[in-house]
């Protein structure tokens, strides 16, 4: 199984606002570093992390850059960017989800359930996609 990592997993590691989620995310990322799981993400996720850290958490730009570098350089993580724009628009129109989530869902492998989304975002469940929380993957 290949796991797509959503922004909230990385944010739990960077913000540490929920100790259990932080521990689950930390264990999951450590397993990726040890090649126990194949993991991917995309530039939309990175952009969402930057935006959230800067605008919501008011983290200084230098710290945000440091955090994103850590993600980009994470051993075992691949960054992919392939979307089906028309499918994304259709999902966005039909379901009550964020446009970024519809783009993620439109990616090859995710839309045909060959890739599992690792996220705390239950909106993906509306699309009947494979989704697990980090603790469910490592347990």
UniProtKB/TrEMBL annotation:
PIN domain mapped to chain residues: 3-127
Pfam families with a match to the protein in the record: PIN
Membrane spanning stretches: none
Protein name: PIN domain-containing protein
Native source organism of the sequence: Candidatus Gottesmanbacteria bacterium RBG_16_38_7b
């Amino acid at each position: 199984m290949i796991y797509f990592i959503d922004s909230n997993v990385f944010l739990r590691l960077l913000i540490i606002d929920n100790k259990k989620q932080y521990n689950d995310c930390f264990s999951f990322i450590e397993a990726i570093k040890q090649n126990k799981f194949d993991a991917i993400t995309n530039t939309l996720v990175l952009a969402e992390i930057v935006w959230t850290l800067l605008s919501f958490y008011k983290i200084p730009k230098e710290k945000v850059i440091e955090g994103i570098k850590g993600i980009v350089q994470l051993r075992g993580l691949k960054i992919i960017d392939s979307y089906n724009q028309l499918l994304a628009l259709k999902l966005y129109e039909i379901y009550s989800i964020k446009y970024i989530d519809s783009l993620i869902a439109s990616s090859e492998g995710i839309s045909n359930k060959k890739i599992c989304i690792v996220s705390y975002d239950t909106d993906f469940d509306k699309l009947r996609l494979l989704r697990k929380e980090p603790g469910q993957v490592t347990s």
